[in-house]
Every structure is written in structure tokens, then in C-alpha cells.
Amino acid sequence: MSPVIAPVDQLVCAVYVSSACKLFDDAELIELLQVARQNNERSDITGMLLYRDGNFLQVLEGPASAVYSLIDKIKRDTRHHGVILMSRRGVEERQFADWQMAFRNMSKTHVAEEGYSPFLEPTFDDGEEEETGEASQLVFRLLRRFKDVVR
Fold first, then answer.
1. Structural domain includes residue 3
2. Taking the CA of residue 34 as centre, how many other CA atoms within 13 Å lie in the half-sphere pointing to its CB?
3. CATH code at 116?
């Protein structure tokens, strides 16, 4: 299946997975998040980053030109390898509009932190029945699958 390429000003959602070249400690993850949040705010990008034992899953939302440019940068980042673009599609609305980058370190027990997303908590109700768009359904099916597998 060929990825859908959106016009540069269209709102898109992209999802990728990758593996870190080494395990990140808490300080490295915090630094990564601070820089990502600053850059994402400037580029009008929102999303969510999940980390577990050296593996990343990230959702990026924003203008197509900004998201595609960031994905190219991510692919060149030497801190990780094996970047697999799972999905990139035009969307009608953002699913993570309130977060420059929500985050969850799945390698350890949850500690309250800025940008924490409750999505992966067993009791979190993600409103599955309220989804309407095909792209939203794809992203949330992928996230739900990740949620089920990593426990």
C-alpha cells in the first residue's frame, strides 16, 4: 500500500516506530522531550511519544510540510535506527491537540510528569465508539494494539 501524500498545508497524522541505539535514562528522555516540545510548538506539531526499553512509538500531527520535514529529520537522527513509518494520512482534526508532545515511559511505573498521557492506563476510556474518521480509527487501533501488547 502506498502512503498517502497530502498537500503541504493539509493537516496530517503520521505514526512511526524505531529502536534506540542505547537505552535512554530519565535525564536523556526529559532532554529529548524538552527540545521536541519547543520545536513542535514552533512548527505547529502535536502528538504523543511512547518509550519502552529502548523502543519508541510516536504520533505526529500538524501541517503536512512540517510533519514530513520532521520525519526526514527523525530518520537521520543517530540516537535511533530502524525507523518504520506505520501510517501517514490527511486528517480532519487532531487527536492530541493539547500536547506539543504527550509522553509515557512504559519502562517504569507511572510518575506524574508534565505532558503525561493516561491513554495506556488500563482504566482509561479512550472513547472508541465516538471515533468517526478513518485515519483516527487507524491511529487509535494501532495505539490500542500497542497498549495491549506491551503490558
1. no
2. 6
3. 3.30.70.100
